[in-house]
Design brief:
The complex is a heterodimer of chains A (396) and B (279).
Chain A (H helix, E strand, L loop, with lengths): L1 E6 L3 E10 L5 E5 L2 E7 L5 H11 L8 H11 L13 E7 L4 H17 L5 E6 L3 H9 L6 E3 L3 H11 L11 H4 L2 E2 L2 E6 L9 H4 L6 E2 L7 H17 L4 H13 L8 H9 L6 E5 H11 L4 E4 L3 E3 L5 E3 L7 H12 L4 H9 L3 E2 L7 H5 L5 E3 L7 H9 L4 H7 L1
Parallel strand pairs in A: 5-6, 5-7, 10-11, 13-16
Antiparallel strand pairs in A: 1-2, 1-4, 2-3, 3-4, 7-14, 8-15, 9-11, 9-12
Helix pairs in contact in A: 1-2, 1-3, 3-13, 4-5, 8-9, 9-16, 10-11
Chain B lengths: L1 H6 L7 H30 L1 H8 L2 H34 L5 H7 L2 H4 L2 H12 L4 H6 L10 H26 L2 H9 L4 H30 L4 H4 L10 H10 L3 H32 L4
Helix pairs in contact in B: 2-14, 3-14, 4-9, 4-11, 7-9, 9-11, 10-11, 11-14, 13-14
Classes of the chains: A alpha/beta (396), B mainly alpha (279).
Chain lengths: 396, 279
Amino acid sequence: MYRTIQLGAHAQAQGKFIRSLADGRIEIEAGTTRLVGRAVEKTRVVAQIGTRLLANRKLHGGLVATVAALGLMLSPVGTVTASAQDSVEILNVSYDPTREFYREYNELFNEWWTAQGNAPVTIQQSHGGSGSQARAVIDGLEATVVTLALAADINAVASRSDKVPEDWQSRLPHNSSPYTSTIVFLVREGNPKGLKDWGDLAKDGVQVITPNPKTSGGARWNYLAAWAWAENEFGGDEEKIRDFVGQIYKNVPVLDTAARGSTTTFSQRGIGDVLLAWENEAYLSLKELGEDKFDIVVPSVSVLAEPPVALVEGNIKSDAQRKAAEAYLNHLYSPEAQAIALKHFYRAWDVSAAAQEDIERFPEVKRLGIDHFGGWAKVQPHHFGDGGVFDQIYSE
Amino acid sequence: MRASLLRSPSPLPGFGLSFGIMMAILSIVVLLPLSALLGRGLMIGPADLWDMVNSRRIWSALELSFRAALIASVFNLVFGIVLAWVLVRYRFWGRKLVDAAVDLPFALPTAVAGISLTALYAPNGVFGQALAPLGIKVAYTELGIWMALIFIGLPFVVRTVQPVIEELDREVEEVSATLGARRTYTLRRVVLPTLAPAALTGFALALARSVGEYGSVIFIAGNIPNLTEIAPLLIVIRLEEYNYDAAAAIGIAMLLISFAMLLAINLIQIWSRRRIGLV
């Protein structure tokens, strides 16, 4: 079971729960090291109410004394300076399928953040294909934080703009990925074509819907998952693996530019027999469009997709903004935020605050991380670069 | 002497000021971005530019973009003249409404147009379902691209031809009739030549607009390389690869082809103006 602990004022760590100590702290295993700290629990509701009343104290002049006393009693952090601070803005530049998650998380964050005695933060969201979003940040979009689909996209920001430090991925727990996902098949109700695993997608007469891996982060995971299956099937014979992956793409009638576009093509336009989708998108489709229309099929092997987050150092304007933005990313690892991620069908780490149904939903699947393929630095140019393996599939 | 050449090509005062303003705005809005693109191309060098453009995938995309734009614009040319004719010459209920609706493709975000057309023409859409038994597929084929381009290009021909039809003297047609010409002959030898310059302008505008159209097309085209992948999408894909040079190369190729086409249309236009004595 994963738990989150507090280390110092703003740093948090997350890892496997080891044991409880006598003084109330807990020990966790994070990567190769063991850490001890106070467990981050669900924020106490009383404290929140106290401060929220306090925040309104200008409006309720007569109540100042009592409420302020109550608020200070319940949350010992200094609230007095809060209203004097300038309002802080955060622009979160994210990828397509996270809209619903961040909408809810932003509310949670502001509730928690003001409960800590800070002025509310104005959070703006920007969504789009992960690659285009990264390019927009490189070209000058003033993102405070980036929460993208692939580490490769944040790597691109780091290497092409200096706005993100090269070692960004080691700065937050779990490779800076507060939640993970995987790739599954979404098929029509009852699975009429009997699609069970990657091998079935290359058969004649099967129509596969996936976005273009050149423009969509999720589509790169689709491609890699198929590649991983073929690698195992053909014993690493690169020629055969290429042919197989090429065969799947020959079965693609519509190559959308982003994940949401593909979901629409498959679910609304009725094109295709199977949609290769982010697991969270697949569940969202079931929820939005009715469970009686589609089934989720979990293949024998898939990928451990880690959509990472990072602070865009180069765009930070003030200390207050830095503090808020760091907290914004750190708080993604809190039990409540993790519960929201689970609710929005992401596989989060800390399940202590999540609803039982959100935890039990996910089937077991063998998931291969990007390291299996040699890391993004190798995968990106080899498979998806100009003239790479994917281009070769279409030039034959 | 040179100063006076620049100063007074016209007896109207204010030439210097208005010419200056015109050049400044034109430079900032049009010439600067275009020269930035061409400048990038010069830095790359013609040989490398050619290498970046010369692949089967890019040629099929360019061919598709220009072919679809040409087909859609020819359709718009014919249909636009008919539409403008009906709007000017006949009085019917709802004419003002139709007249206003012609401009909607200008106002609508192109993505909205693309998504609506796709929803209609997809195999499960209203039109798609009706066409499916006939074996006609529109969405996710080249036909779909034509539909989108027809939609966005229509107002150009209508709006350029309409005022000319309004100005057309009925007397000229009546004279033609009294001299014994049949209606089709009058249409062919009297009306159409008068409309030709304006119609060609509309055609050129619609063509130029369609060639570069991205927003509406990517939704209805299947975007399959070599088949339904338009050149602007390839530019976007090159940008996603951070390959700005290759993106610029395709952009320059499109610019040059468009320029050649517009030049040809302008020459035809000059010729047709001369023919009707409107030099």
